[in-house]
Amino acid sequence: MKTYIARRLLALVPVALVVATVGFTLIHLAPGDPASVIAGPDATGDDIARIQRQLGLDAPYHVQLFRWYGRLVQGDLGQSIFLRRPVLEAILDRVEPTLLLTLYAMLVAILVGVASGVLSARHHNTVTDQALMSVALVGISIPNFLLGLLLILIFSVGLGWFPVAGYSPLEYGWLRTLRSLTLPAFALGLVQSALIARIARSAMLDVLREQFIVAGRAKGLAESAVVYKHALKNAMIATVTVIGISFAILISGSVVVEQVFNIPGLGRLIISAVLRRDYPVIQGVVLCIAGVYMLVNLAIDLSYLLFDPRVRYQ
Amino acid sequence: MSVVVLPRPVTGRRGTPRWLRLLARRRATLIGLALVSGVLFVGVLSPLLAGDPLRIDVARRLTAPGQTHWFGTDDVGRDVWSRVVYGARLSLLVGAAVVALSFVMGLGCGLIAGYYRRLDNLVMRVMDGLMAFPAIILAIALMASLGPSVLNVIVAIGIVYAPRVARIVRGSVLVIRETAYVEAARALGASDVVVIARHVLPNCLSPVIVQASFVFAAAVLTEAALSFLGVGVPPYVPSWGNILAEGRLYLQQAPWLVLYPGAAIMLTIFGLNLLGDGLRDLLDPRLRGIATERTN
After folding, report:
1. Is the model's pLDDT at B293 over the cut of 50?
2. What is the rounded distance in angstroms from the CA atom of residue A147 to the CA atom of residue A78?
């Protein structure tokens, strides 16, 4: 088990190195000199030279790259050109709404997804099953930003139950925060729940055919004990993978959904940075999200230890 | 473009190719095929079906759907029907180009990584690194460097999906390179290029082709998302994402700006997903049994 964890941690190193390199190279992909792109079309030669010095762009590529690694190891993501403050600070300022939105959406996705998947499997090939799976099929075809707009049309413009847009920070009371995040979380979570439902259903169906389920029924266990205690735990192995993947998708999805609901999170930060060509901020946000994404994938792999004893004794 | 080498269709008694009968057996696949053909029809014939999507008529801004403007007009009086119809054309272009680009890059990297074991680690670590970024985030970052244009959207989304294709190809190549027929070809003195092009490539295609429909759908979605966020194609280009971005600002006055392009995206993605499921069952014989079991 220890070697398994060590092996997984070690495998992260090359990936992290590539991620850092890609993050660095992004700025050099821009046609022409990045400094003149940042400075804009009206910049003088002095301006461009100043930005070049400021970003260390006057050094050779490989020197810049190693400086970049060095700074990353120290947790230094550089200075924002437009905001005139450290990138890490700007990111930490914006983490709260994105994190809360992602977690809320995760909750929606798991609750709706696992529940309808299990329900579908228990009532395999009935009207319930077909109806749920049809809804799920339509669900995976709706982009989250479109669902967000439709939810606003119905529940804010039409019924007036929720604010049209905006975010209420935690310091003004968590209930208001919850209310401001409900529509975005459903826009984000429902789409993922469709995916989770499909996987949970097929995992559950596979498990329900196993011998130990027959044995459980034969020894007279209640159906609920068979389904929820024995079958669900085994079906969770496949489901946890997709839940983990969903979490990763939700982080990036929140970037899009924030734009729909005017939520001042990481998504709005990166989009405004793109429009202002504030490259250090773009790099910083991209690296942070990729870092979280990598850690989530690690967590998925390690969670097998919990759910699947076969991995544990390898 | 990658050339698809399909086996000669084995014809049944009624003369219908076997693959066509298998495809037609599932109603869901047929619905998907119909939807995708519909989008294809609208996209190819857009000049015949709609007027100029760029014509501005400020006097008629935000007109509700009616006789002259079936889908209404937007905030500068452009005809939404025309913009949605030309949006289909853009989505098809982006989808097809991304599939072609990501397949060429993915097949190249996958074949090299799978066939030449020494390069495997290097190529696949780079692919892993690219896949460590969530798709939309990497696309946004690439767009930030490349600048807004249709071509750059295609390049950015193509780069995002190429590693996913490469991983599947590499997996198949690892199996194929150990088979007897590859060994036989090598024993007969065939060069690596010949072995890869004649023996490995055709045999690793079918699991990849299955992905085409899903990559297409993902490309359409990603383009719409990028344009919606304002970092995709330039704002004047008729794109479903662009119309939705305008619609967001006029949700109360002009819900048609969201509803029609939204329906277009949904039906397209829905159709591609159904078609993709059908193709997977058809082209992946291992799954065929499961598929029939599921329809029963």
Report:
1. no
2. 36
Task: Using the predicted structure, report yes or no on whether residue A158 has a pLDDT greater than 70.
Answer: yes
Among residues B83, B79, B86, the alpha carbon closest in space to that of B63 is found at B79
Q: Which helix (H) or strand (E) holds A40?
A: none
Report how far Cα B274 is from the mean position of its chain's Cα atoms. 13
Residue in the structure block whose two tokens are 């014509």: B55
Tell me, yes or no, if A138 comes closer than 8 A to chain B by beta carbon. Answer: yes
Question: What average pLDDT is seen over chain B?
Answer: 81
Q: What is the mean pLDDT of residues B70-85?
A: 78
B262: nearest CA partner in chain A: A146
Residue A241 has pLDDT above 90, yes or no: no
Q: Residue A24's pLDDT is what?
A: 82
What is the arithmetic mean of pLDDT over A31-59? 73
Distance CA B203, CA B198 (A): 9
**Which three-class secondary structure state does DSSP give residue B17?**
strand
Q: What is the mean pLDDT of residues A81-101?
A: 83
Q: Do A251 and B252 touch (CB under 8 A)?
A: no
Nearest chain A CA: its distance from B244 CA (Å): 8
Q: List CB contacts of B111: < 8 A, sequence separation 6 or more.
A: B169, B170, B173, B196, B200, B201, B204
- Alpha helix stretches (DSSP H) within B67-200: 80-115, 117-131, 135-146, 150-176, 180-187, 192-194
User: Which chain B residues contact residue A271 at CB under 8 A?
Assistant: 140, 229-231
CA angle B28, B29, B31 (to 5 degrees): 65
For A79, phi then psi, to 5°, come to -105, 140
ipTM for the complex shown: 0.82
Q: Is the pLDDT of residue A68 over 90?
A: no
- Residue A185 CB neighbour total at 10 angstroms: 25
The mean per-residue pLDDT over the stretch B80-92 comes to: 85
Interface residue A263 vs chain B (CB under 8 A): no
Which of chain B's residues have a Cβ under 8 Å away from the Cβ of A26? 141-142, 144-145
Rg for chain B, CA atoms, rounded: 22
Please judge whether A137 and B274 are an interchain contact, meaning their C-beta atoms are less than 8 angstroms apart. Answer: yes
User: Which two three-digit tokens encode residue B62?
Assistant: 């935000």
Closest CA to A266 of B157, B136, B155, B249: B136
pLDDT, residue B158, reads 93
How many angstroms separate the CA atoms of B19 and A203, rounded?
29
pLDDT at B291 over 50: no
**Helix/strand/coil for A205:** helix
User: For the whole model, what pTM was predicted?
Assistant: 0.82
Please list every residue in chain B whose beta carbon sits closer than 8 Å to the beta carbon of residue A143: 221, 224-225, 265, 269
In what helix (H) or strand (E) does residue A78 lie, and over which residues does it extend?
A: none
Question: What percent of chain A stands above pLDDT 70?
Answer: 93
Find the helix packing angle between B201-229 and B256-283, rounded to 10°.
170
Which residues 43-62 in chain A show a CB within 8 A of chain B? none
Q: CA-nearest residue of chain B to A24? A: B141
